[in-house]
Amino acid sequence: MAETSQLSPGLTDEKARVGAPSDEEKVAIDGFTEEGENLSPLNTGTEQHGARRHSHGDEPVVPEASRGERLKSYRLADFAPLTGREEDWRFTPLKRLRGLHSEPLSGQAPAVTVTGASNIQVETVDRDDARFGCAAVPEDRVSAAAWEAVTAATVITIPEETVADCEVTVSVRGTDSAAAAQHIIIDARRFSRAVVVLDHQGSAVLAQNVEILVGDGAELTVVSVQEWDDDAVHVSSQQAKIGRDAHFKHVVVSLGGDLVRLTPSSFFTAPGAEVEMYGLYFADAGQHLEQRLLVDHAVPNCKSRVTYKGALQGQGAHTVWVGDVLIRKEAEGTDTYEVNRNLVLTDGARSDSVPNLEIETGQIEGAGHASATGRFDDEHLFYLMARGIDEKTARRLVVRGFLNEVIQQIKVPVLEERLTEAVERELAAGNL
Fold it and tell me: Which of 86, 94, 169, 220 is least crowded, fewest Cβ atoms below 10 Å from its Cβ?
């Protein structure tokens, strides 16, 4: 039977619409607050100045500021010790960071070897080099700790109007389990073109800052592969500044490690630029793979597209994707869209997906986001099995097709083949 409702006595016809309750009396709905559905009993209690009890603990918290107004600082002391109640860390198991957020980062950083293109420049510079801080300012405690701890950086420069004669591979090989810091700078000068692959392997406990400069008219692709050993912990801030009419593609592939947390950010600095951000992650039992990205539209007439896809299997497998897109008041003519898809392959796995879109101007071309998490599509399986393919093979085909959209964006055949084989090993390990 259809439900009917009546307006409160003090509600006039003019205010009989969503969002305009009477000053004298408001319609109350059980289980809801003015901010939406009250999902946790911990949210009850006294509210002061808009602050309410945190849904992940019993302490009051200050409401989050705009994504573009969060604290940035090179000084570790400016960031309070982490408790796990912070919005930016609420999904991260702090105990598994193995001291990256709380201990001195005095361990041996993974070795860095740069190979590939012959017409680029590779240097190791001290931290007083002017290029330190050219593209990034730490946005969290671990990033700031890494900033203070490093004494040198590896700098890869693609000279002005240079087309790299092949891809550049930056091999990061870890052998030390002590907490360490690392700094890498990628500088693509005006009208240059290059593909740079950050290839992380071995064992490490690493806090890493990667600064990326994309000059006016440049085309740069950065692929960050995390294929660590099972015991590795990797927290990486990868920030890019994109110049006028530049094109920047950033691809994340996270497969290995115990805990991997990446925070890729793209900052537009002049009109006409375009950003593509792709991600692929596959979590096994006990793994925690987290991606928190930001696209900051601060200037007019720029375009961004974000596509992240993940699969997870096994007890305790956990993936996190948080996508923040900020369209500032000055960013008229913005065109942006972000999407996240997650495929849960077994019981006992958990995926968190949080798309956020903050718009400060109505003069835009378009903006949107989408997120979905689910199991196999029965129609896809039925289609394949109806053509004589057994269920196990059909399931693998579905997963391959699901993830291949991201792999083929890399445009490095050898790496694409390697990652396709890695996905096959993941599927075999899950007995799919």
Answer: 94
Q: Write out pLDDT tens, residues 92-147.
A: 999 999 999 999 999 999 999 999 999 999 999 999 999 999 999 999 999 999 99
Q: Taking each helix axis as running N to C, give the angle between helix 391-407 and helix 413-429, from 0 to 180 degrees, rounded to the nearest 10.
A: 150
Place of tokens 């903006």: 367
Burial 29-45 (b: 16+ CB within 10 A, else e): eeeeeeeeeeeeeeeee
Using H for helix, E for strand and C for coil, what is the string for 12-53? CHHHCCCCCCCCCCCCCCCCEECCEECCCHHHCCCCECCECE
What pLDDT, on the 0 to 100 scale, is given for residue 431? 64
Tell me the average pLDDT across 178-196.
98
Which of 295, 290, 391, 285 minimizes the C-alpha distance to 335? Answer: 295
Cβ atoms of 356 and 326 within 8 Å: the answer is: no
Where do we find the tokens 């129609």? 379
Tell me the mean pLDDT in the region 177-187: 97
Whether residue 390 is predicted with pLDDT greater than 90 in this model: the reply is: no
Angle separating helix axes 378-385 and 391-407, nearest 10 degrees: 120
- In whole angstroms, what is the distance from residue 44 CA to residue 373 CA? 29
- Residue 329 has phi, psi (to 5 degrees) of -60, -30
The mean of the pLDDT values for the chain is 86
Fill in the DSSP letter of residue 163.
Answer: B
Taking the model in full, what pTM does it have? 0.84
Distance from C-alpha of 236 to C-alpha of 54, rounded to nearest angstrom: 27
In the 8-state DSSP scheme, what is residue 399? H
What is the band of 392 on the pLDDT scale with cuts at 50, 70, 90? Answer: confident
> What contacts 427, CB < 8 A, 6 or more positions away?
396, 399, 400
User: Could you give the maximum distance between any two Cα atoms of the chain, in Å?
Assistant: 78
User: In the chain, what is the straight-line distance between the N-terminal and C-terminal CA atoms, in Å?
Assistant: 46
Residue with tokens 């290059």: 194
CB 231: neighbour CB atoms within 10 A? 15
Q: Are 370 and 339 in contact (CB under 8 A)?
A: yes
Buried b or exposed e, range 109-136, using 16+ CB within 10 angstroms:
bbebebebbeebebeeeeeeeeebeebb
Position 206 pLDDT exceeds 80: yes
Asked whether the predicted pLDDT for residue 23 surpasses 80, the reply is: no
Instruction: Provide the 3-class DSSP secondary structure of residue 95.
Output: helix
Hey, is 174 helix, strand or coil?
Answer: strand
Residues 6 or more apart whose CB falls under 8 angstroms from that of 309 comprise 279, 280, 281, 340, 341, 342, 343, 402, 403, 405, 406
